[in-house]
Amino acid sequence: MLLNPISKSFDLGDGRIVSIETGKLARQADGSVTVRQGNCVILATVVANKEPREGQDFFPLSVDYQEKFASAGRIPGSFFKREARLSDYEVLTSRLVDRALRPLFPEDYFCDVQVLLSLISSDAEVMPDAMACLAASAALAVSDIPIKEIISEVRVANIDGEYVVNPSRSQLAKASFDFIIAATEKNLMMVEGEAKECSEEELVKALEVAHNAIRVQIKAQQELRDAVGVTAKREYTKPVVNEELNAKVIAFAKDKVYTISKAGSSKHERSDAYDVLKQELITSLGEEATDADKKLAKKYYEDLKWEVVRNMILDDRIRLDGRQLDQVRPLQMETEPLPTPHGSSLFTRGETQSLTTVTLGTKLDELLVESAAKSEYTKFILHYNFPPFSTGEVKMMRGPGRREVGHGNLAMRSLKQMMPGSEYPYTVRVVSDILESNGSSSMATVCAGSLALMDAGVPVQKHVSGVAMGLITRGDGKYAILTDILGDEDHLGDMDFKVTGTREGICGVQMDIKVDGLSMDVMRAALAQARNGRLHILDAMYECIAEHRPEVKPHAPRMEKLIIDKEFIGAVIGPGGKVIQEIQRETGTTITIEEVGNYGEVSIFSQEKSGLDKAVAWVKGIVAVPEVGAVYEATVKGIKEFGAFVEFLPKKEGLLHISEISWKRLESMEGIFKIGDQVKVKLIGLDPKTGKFKLSRKALMPKPESAPKPQPQPRQDESNGEERL
C-alpha cells in the first residue's frame, strides 16, 4: 500500500499557515492526521470498536494528549528517561479536547473510542494545546466513526487591545485574557480560560471572534474529508428500545418523581426518596420481568427524572431544593479554623464545603513545570483534593484524577490573577480539601483559597469568588438560568458554566455548552446573572475578612528579598560560597541568589525574625558603599593603646583613634571598651596613604565649650604595626 498523502491548508491570519494532512502516517487507525503550524506538528489518531461491550450503557471515550520530548530535542528528566504518566499540562489539554468531542457522538453510541494525540515536533513559539482539538476532529472527520458534526478549537487572547487568534507564546505572555473556545459551525461547545478582570462583554466578543476563526478550520476539515472520499459513517448496534416498558415507567413514576422533586428536600433525603421509588417501580414490573427489563426500566426511570425536573424548573420556576432560580445557597465562612498552618479558611455554601490551607515556602520550594517546549518554575501552587466521603461514598484512594487536576487548575488560574508579582519572595501553596460536595466544589475552592490567602498575610489586593451556573432551554423558547447549581442539577443543563472574578471583572471561566443555537443574548443574560451571584458571595467574603493581614502569622517563616547590583553577587557568595555559608550558619537562615538582568535578587528566609534581621543587615553591609559623613552602629573587634578597631559594616573595619572617642582627653584605653561592645560612630574620612577608614565617636557628641584643641593623629605603620606621626 503506497503512501498517498492528502492535505488542506488555511491561513490563521498574518500569513500563519496551518496544514492538515492524512494518508501518510498511522494508516491502520480508523482515522489519522497530522496538523502543522511552523515547526509544530501534532499526530492525531482515532480508533473505535465496531461493537459495544456486552452490557455497556454509557459512552466510553478516552482522549490522551502526550508530548514527545524528542519533538523539542530534549531527553526527559525522569529517572527512567522516558515519557511516563501524563503531566498536569497534558491532562488539562486532554480534558479540553475530551469535553469538546464528547457531545459530537450520538446519544445511543456506546462503542469504545480512543483518541490519541502526540506532539511529534515542537515549535518554541507555537502553542500546541490550541491545535489539539483541530487534530482530533480532523482524524474523526476522515474516519467512518459516526459523529454528528465537525468541530475545532482556538485560543483567543487580548494583546494590547487586539483580539488575537492562536497567539504565539511570546504574545501570550502579554495577554490580558486567554480563552480556549471550541465550536461547531453553528454552536459554541466549550470555553475555558483566565483573565485579568475582563468584562462580560469582552468575553462575548472573544466568543464571536473565536467562532469566526473556527468556521474557517471546519471548512478545511470538510474539504479534507471530501478529498479522502468519506461519504458515509459506519452503522452501529443501537441499544434495545422497549416503548411499552417506557410507557409503564412513565405511568407509574412520573407524578411521584415530580412530588419528590418539588419537595425542596436535602440531597440525601431526595436521593433516598428517588431510590425507594425506583425499587417500587422494579417491584411493580412483577416476577415475569427479566433482568434485562429491569435494567432498561432503571434507564427509563433516570431519563424520566431528567425530563420531569427540567420541565418543573422551566414551567414552575421551582428548583430541587426550593430556591429561587437566582438564589445562592446559605453561606458560612471563617478564617483561621486551624492553628498551625500559615493561613487557613473554612468555606461552606449549602452542602458544599472546602477546608483550605496556605503554606509559605522559599524559592527552593518552587514547582518545576516541564513540557516539551520549556521548563520553568512557578511560585504559586494549588492542589485540589476530592475524597470519597465528601459525597458519602466508598472508593479506592488513588492519586489525583483528571477531574481533580482540572478543577484545581481552574481555581489556580483564577486566584493567580490577584497574586503579587515576582517581587514577592514567598513560594505559596494552596491546598483545598473538599469535605462535602453537592455542587461546584471548584468554586468553593476559589472562595476558600481567597480567604486563606488573606488570612496568611499574602498581599492579594482583592477577593476572588466563583459561582457555578446552569442553563436549561426548551424548543418552545423557554429557558431558565440557575445560579449556584446543585450536583443533581449539574447534568440537567444545556450549558454548565463556572465564572470567577472580583467585583471589577472576570478572572476565570469554564463552560460546557450542549444546546444548539444558543443566542448571544441568552449568553449575556446568563453572564449577568452569574455576575450578580459572584458579587453576592464577594460581599460575604469581605465581611469575613476585608483585607489581607498586614504581616504573616507569628509561626510563619519570615522572608525578605533584597535587590543588589549585579557586581556584588560574587561578594555575597564569597569564594567557594564561603561568605553565604557563613551568613546562613551564623544567622540560621536560608539564602538564595538569582541573577536577573543587571541585578541580583537575594531572598532570605528564616523561622526567626531576629535571624532574618541579622542576615539582612549582613548582606546590606556587604553591598553597601561606605559614605563619609554617614553614621554606623559598629562592633569593637580589637583594642590597642592608641584606639580601637571597630567593624562598622560586615567585613569593613576602621580605626576609632583614642583622640576621636571623646572630647575629653584620654590618657589610655584602659576601661574604655571591651571586645564586642557596640558603639555608634561616624565615618569622617579615609587615610589617603593607607586607604583605611577613619571613624569618630566624639563627632556625634555635643562639643563642650572647654574642649581641648585637636591633637595630630599618629598613623599606624603598615609594615610593623607601630605608631608614628
From TrEMBL:
Chemical reaction(s) catalysed: RNA(n+1) + phosphate = RNA(n) + a ribonucleoside 5'-diphosphate
The keyword Signal appears for this protein: no
InterPro entries from the UniProt entry: ExoRNase_PH_dom1, ExoRNase_PH_dom2, ExoRNase_PH_dom2_sf, KH_dom, KH_dom_type_1, KH_dom_type_1_sf, NA-bd_OB-fold, PNPase
GO cellular component entries: cytosol
PROSITE patterns (UniProt xref): KH_TYPE_1, S1
Record key words, sorted: Cytoplasm, Magnesium, Metal-binding, Nucleotidyltransferase, RNA-binding, Transferase
Cofactor(s) of this protein: Mg(2+)
Classification via Pfam families: KH_1 (PF00013), PNPase (PF03726), RNase_PH (PF01138), RNase_PH_C (PF03725), S1 (PF00575)
SUPFAM superfamilies on file: Eukaryotic type KH-domain (KH-domain type I), Nucleic acid-binding proteins, Ribonuclease PH domain 2-like, Ribosomal protein S5 domain 2-like
Annotated S1 motif domain residues: 629-698
Region ranges (Disordered): 697-725
Subcellular location: Cytoplasm
Classification via SMART domains: KH (SM00322), S1 (SM00316)
Residues that bind Mg(2+): D490, D496
Ranges annotated as biased composition (Basic and acidic residues): 715-725
EC assignment: 2.7.7.8
Alphabetized GO MF terms: 3'-5'-RNA exonuclease activity; magnesium ion binding; polyribonucleotide nucleotidyltransferase activity; RNA binding
Family named by the database record: Belongs to the polyribonucleotide nucleotidyltransferase family.
Matching PANTHER family: POLYRIBONUCLEOTIDE NUCLEOTIDYLTRANSFERASE (PTHR11252), POLYRIBONUCLEOTIDE NUCLEOTIDYLTRANSFERASE 1, MITOCHONDRIAL (PTHR11252:SF0)
Free-text function comment from the UniProt entry: Involved in mRNA degradation. Catalyzes the phosphorolysis of single-stranded polyribonucleotides processively in the 3'- to 5'-direction.
Protein name: Polyribonucleotide nucleotidyltransferase
Native source species: Lacibacter luteus
Lineage: Bacteria, Pseudomonadati, Bacteroidota, Chitinophagia, Chitinophagales
Gene from which the chain derives: pnp
